[in-house]
Design goal:
Layout lengths: L14 E5 L16 H15 L3 E5 L16 H11 L3 E3 L6 H8 L6 E3 L7 H4 L3 H8 L4 E4 L21 E3 L1 H15 L5 E5 L8 H7 L5 E4 L3 H8 L14 H13 L3 E3 L3 E5 L8 E5 L8 E5 L1 H12 L3 E5 L12 H12 L3 E4 L3 H9 L7 E2 L4 H7 L5 H4 L10
Helix pairs in contact: 1-2, 7-13, 8-9, 10-11, 11-12
Amino acid sequence: MDKMSVNEVPVKGKRVLVRVDFNVPVDEQRKITDDTRIKAALPTISYLVGEGAKVILVSHFGRPKGQVNPKYSLAPVAERLAELLGQKVTFASECIGEAVRQQVDSLTDGQVLLLENVRFYPGEEKNDPAFAQELAALAELFVNDAFGTAHRAHASTEGVTHYLPAVAGFLMQKEVEIMGKALLSPQRPFVAIIGGAKVADKIGVIENLLDKVDTLLIGGGMANTFLKAQGYKMGASLVEDDKLDLAAHLMLKAQEREVLLELPDDVLAATTMDADASFRNVQIWGLDEDEMALDIGVATSAKFARHIINARTVIWNGPMGVFEIPSFAKGTQVVAQAMALCPGTTIVGGGDSVAAVEKVGVADKLTHISTGGGASLEFLEGRVLPGVAALLDRPQAKN
């Protein structure tokens, strides 16, 4: 956890390769529709510019599968970044090669160069040592500020660290320190809220959290599997029948660990998953055969909210229902509002939960919103993230 940060090493006059996550959404005209990820990298980039470093940015964008594809060019990002930084950002049409080296050599202190999509090269996702070495040769220091890709051992996240001293950017540092502290030394009560469609997607997260939390709130489609494992008839709801034994095991483990595992007492049920579907609030024992549980109910929302508001540490990953449909977004909205009212540390661990808190308008009232989807999940599972593990430890961390 205790990794060196960019402000702990000399950078003035140095060529600094910075891994950022500029995988932003764009419309059909390739206009950026949400620049949150670009803004999240600004503190590190601005610091390096201010300290007189020669900044070389590298990022992926989309899934070009190792092929050059203009659809996935980072050129529009260079333009938006220049606007946000208030200075020129030079764009390189490649990541490696003589032309790029010349552009790097022409940089003066405080200037910024953005390389083309690193996933245009098959060596990136293969973590090819030759490609990583050529990328690393552009710089004298590596800064990883892309937590969202830290769970991938790619050339631009892990490979380059074999050839350059590697430290964390401010965003990476914040992600690791805030989420790490919550998992290792949380203020209590410690409440985790886990939602989403399937138990299978969150097995590792639930198992890891059962050793750490005081209360675990389970909503979303995955709650149906737990409820069926308790003997309830779930009608036409999404249920993972092959995970019933696992759900029973997790509930037994919670009991053994003296963790309060809370499931829905009531749900919003409908016969179709449509925006105009008629629905009702029903106790979990009262579902009709043709009904699906599509959101937590009113009583459950209130119960979950009480646990959240009274907590000192809260981590949330996954919506409580089909929140894309307004009729079935109420449970997720209540959880987001309760997070905003909680006086403790409140962390949203990536994925759809981020979209939910932004939609409800409470993002600025939370302690931390993770920029990493898969990386956040793996971090919550307690797994080692290659992009983090490869960074230099602080000297005292070795003692």
